[in-house]
Amino acid sequence: MTTTTAPTPPANTASSGFLARYGHRLNEIGLLAAIVLLYIVLGSTAGGFLSVDNQLGLLRNAAMIGIAAWGVTLVIISGEIDISIGPAVAFASVIVAKGSAEWGLGVGGAIVLTLALGFAWGALAGWLRARFNVPSFIATLGLWSVLGGLALYMTDALPVPLPESAVFDVLGGSILGIPTAAIVMLVLFGVFAYLAKYTAYGRTVFAIGGNAAAARLAGLNVNRVRVLLFATTGLLAAITGVLLAARLGSGNGGAAAGLEFDVIAAVVIGGTALAGGRGSLLGTLLGVVFITVISNGLVLLGVNSFFQDVVRGLIIVAAVLVNVIISRRNAATRLV
User: Fold this and answer.
1) N or C end of the chain, less CB within 10 A?
2) Cα(first)–Cα(last) distance of the chain, in Å?
3) Is the pLDDT reported for residue 184 higher than 70?
4) Percent helix, strand and coil across the chain, each rounded to 5?
5) Using alpha carbons only, how large is the chain's radius of gyration in Å?
6) Which positions are tagged coiled coil (predicted)?
């Protein structure tokens, strides 16, 4: 009489099952845990960190990064890059200030002009990429230089005060105690998260990032999508510029310096692959919160402003390394 013994399951069955089910969310789970840890540490070491005023300030600062980050997330998912955000925001703040205070357009006309120009300069960068195959890094680097130079030239590097306006008061202030910029950020997050996950446009963006040549052979209009992607980031930068001008009470050609690095860092930390084809708006949202909390905590702890850049750079490098490791682990799990 023979007896059979049930096979012993591999020791790593539980971990393999976890990776299979939640592997694509590991980056987001890790970010959420890191943010909770940061709140615990900073809440106990940085005076005033958990105060209501500071938390509202965090929301306002997050909006300056987050609004543009939604568009940049889709750009990077498509396999491209946009480094023009900082000067674009500064230039937009100058245009809305000059349009409303000096050009006689009124507040509404100045805002409309700023948003239209933002869409146009973004579309121009996308057109250069789509029509002439100019690398997006070069196209947006040129835009970075042009917009930054124009913003300083038009203002002689001096602030341009905004006129008194209830509209600017609301845009630069709060609604029901919540910063208006934060409300705009969250509304736009919902819009872009829906577009990325539930629309044909979103699926096309992922397809282009995965393999642009195959997407073109499948009949997708790659060039049109690229133009629209960069036009969208230009529009979002213009929105951020309007909100920044309203918050500061002036347009400033030197404002938002280095913002593009915070935006890209938030997107990468959020798990979007720099090679394209993978990413999520939720991950970017967590990346925005992480970057904002780190920056706020360093200020409250009295860390030297120059050393803050060192910390930020180390965080970006570490995030890329984690991104690569998670990608390789997910790929290995799928192959098993």
Assistant:
1) N
2) 36
3) yes
4) 75, 0, 20
5) 22
6) none
